[in-house]
Amino acid sequence: MTAPLHFLTIDAASRQIADGTLSPVALVQAVADRIAAVDARLDSYVLPTIEMALAEARRAEAEIAAGRRLGPLHGVPVGIKDIVQTAGVRTTCHSHILADSVPDQDAVVVARLKEAGAILMGKLATHEFAFGGPDWTLPFPPARNPWNRDHFTAGSSSGSGAAVAAGLCLGALGSDTAGSIRMPAAFCGIAGIKPTYGRVSRRGVYPLAFSLDHVGPMCWTARDCALMLQAIAGHDPEDPASADVAVPDYAAALTGDIAGLRVGVVRHFYEVDDRADEEVLAAMEAALGVLRGLGAEVVDVTLSPGQDYSACGNILMLAEGFAVHEADLRSRPEKFGWILRERLVLGGMLSAADYIQAGRLRRRLAAEMEAALERVDVLVTPGAWSAAPRIDEVPAFQFFRRPSLMSPGNVSGLPALCVCNGFSQSGLPLALQVMGRRFDEATVLRVGDAFEQATPWRDRRPEP
Questions:
Q1: Annotated active-site residue in 44, 156, 242, 407
Q2: 114 among known catalytic residues
Q3: How far apart are CA 86 and CA 68, in angstroms?
Q4: Count of alpha carbons within 13 Å of 208, Cβ hemisphere only?
Q5: Which terminus of the chain has a smaller tally of CB atoms within 10 A, N or C?
Q6: What distances in angstroms separate CA 62 from CA 10, 14, 25, 233, one per listed residue?
Q7: What is the mean pLDDT, run by run of 10 residues, along the chain of 464 residues?
C-alpha cells in the first residue's frame, strides 16, 4: 500500500519532489491536515505556523519548477524544538519566563535548514528549558507518546519525538545534554542522532549545560537523519565549541553493507551494572543477531561501570544548568515550573571541587571510550531500560534512580544514534543505541541504516 503523504520519509518525499510527482504544497498541506486531525491528543506543537509554511511551500514549488532545487530538503516540512530560536516566531523554552519571547534572528541550525529549502511547520514541545518535565504547571501541556498517549515520550525533545512518529513533520530538530534526542527517539520509535560535540553549531539554542549540549536531527529513519545532518553540520566560528572539521557526505556512506565492521557490545552496562527489562534484553540479542547476519563481527567490550558515567554527567549538568539559570532562580523562582526549580537548586548545592573532580573523571571516561573504539568500529547498547512508562508515573528525579545508558555519549562527546529494534508486548517501541568515533557519524549512521533495512520495524506507524 502507498504510504499517506504525512508518513513519507524525507528521502522518499525528496525523490518525489525532485521527479515532479509530489508538490511541496500538497505535502505541507497533508502534514498540516494531520496536525489538525491528531495533535489535540498529542500536544506535540506549542505553536504551529501553518500559513507561513504554506507560503514557503508555494515559493519552494516555484523555485523547483524553475530549476533552482536546493537539495534533498527543499520543500520538506520539519519541526523545531522550542528552545531553538526562530526569527519572528515565538520561542518560549516551554517556560513562563519566556512565554512572550520572539527572537529577531534564527539560530544557526534553523538558518541552515532554511538555506537547504526545508519548510518550518512550527515550534515543538520540550521540557522546560530542556530539563524540567513532564510538568503540568507550565504554559503548555507535555507532549504525549503517539503509540499510547498515556505513556511518556521521554525528554527533553518530547514534541520532536512525538511529531515525527505521528507524521506531524517529516523531521525535527532536537537537543541532547543527557540523552534528550536519543531517549525520545527510543520511546517514540524513530531515529535520532546526537552528533559529535562541536559538529553542529549551538548558537541561538538556549543552553542547559555548555560542555554537554548537542543539537541534532530526529527523523523516521537513519537515512533521513543523514540528510538533515548534512544540512546543519559544519563549522561556526562564532560558536566557541564548534569544531572546524570537514563534513563528509553522510548519505553516500549508507551503502547497506557493514560486513567486516567490528561491533563492540557494552553488555555490562545493561546486564550487570543495572539490568534492563527482559523484553529489552531479548530485542538486544535479536539485534546483535541481525548485525552478525549482515557480516559484522560482534565482540564484548568492558568500560567503567555505567554509574560512573551517570554520576559524572549529572554533576556537570546540574552545576552548569545552575550557572545558566542562577540569576532567575534568585530573582523570580516562582516563574519556574516546580520540577525544573527543584532540579536546578541541586546544582547550587555542588561545590567547585565537585565540578572539578567530575571534569577530571570525564577526561578519563572519554579516553577509555576512545581507546575501546580503536579496537572496534562502533559500540552498542539498548536505547532505554524499558519501553516508555506511563507519563503520570515519571518521578521528578528519575535520572538518579538508575544509571543512564545515554550518559556515555554526552560525557565523551562522541556521536550516538538510536533506532527502533522492536516492540514490547504492549505495542511500545524498543531501541538500539549505536555510538562511534569522534566525528565519525558516517559509520554510526551506516550501521543504523543497514540495521533498519534488514528489519521490519520501519514499516510500522502509530495511529494516535
A1: 156
A2: no
A3: 25
A4: 32
A5: N
A6: 20, 15, 10, 27
A7: 90 98 98 98 98 98 98 98 98 97 98 98 98 94 98 97 98 98 98 98 98 98 98 98 98 98 98 98 98 98 98 98 97 96 96 98 98 98 98 86 95 98 98 98 98 97 93
Quickly list DSSP for 284-340: HHHHHHHHHHTT-EEEE---S-HHHHHHHHHHHHHHHHHHHHHHHHHH-GGGS-HHH
Query: Is there a contact between 180 and 193 (Cβ–Cβ < 8 Å)?
Result: no
Residue type, 205: V
Looking at residue 133, its pLDDT comes to 83
Torsion of CA 291, 261, 259, 383, to 10 degrees: 20
What's the pLDDT score for residue 401?
Answer: 83
Candidates 180, 242, 310, 407; catalytic one: 180
Provide the grid cell at 62. Answer: 516555484
Nearest-angstrom CA–CA distance, 125 and 290: 35
Query: Is 156 labeled as catalytic in the residue annotation?
Result: yes
Calpha distance 411→316 (Å, rounded): 9
Instruction: Show me where the domains of the chain are located.
Output: 9-307+355-459, 308-354
Cβ 153 vs Cβ 144: under 8 Å: yes
Q: With CA atoms as reference, report the closest residue to 421 among 276, 303, 239, 302.
A: 276
Locus of grid cell 514499516:
459
CA-to-CA distance for 379 and 433, rounded, in angstroms?
Answer: 8
Ordered DSSP codes for 48-84:
E-HHHHHHHHHHHHHHHHTT---STTTT-EEEEETTB
Tell me yes or no: is domain 9-307+355-459 CATH 2.40.50.100: no
CA dist., res. 365 & res. 201, Å (int) = 24
Beta 429-436 vs 378-382: how paired, if at all? antiparallel
**Catalytic residue check, 194:** no
* Cell reading at 383: 536505547
Among candidate residues 23, 81, 157, 310, the one labeled active-site is 81
Per-residue pLDDT of 159-202, as tens digits, reads 999 999 999 999 999 999 999 999 999 999 999 999 999 999 99
Q: How many CB atoms lie within 10 A of CB 246?
A: 8
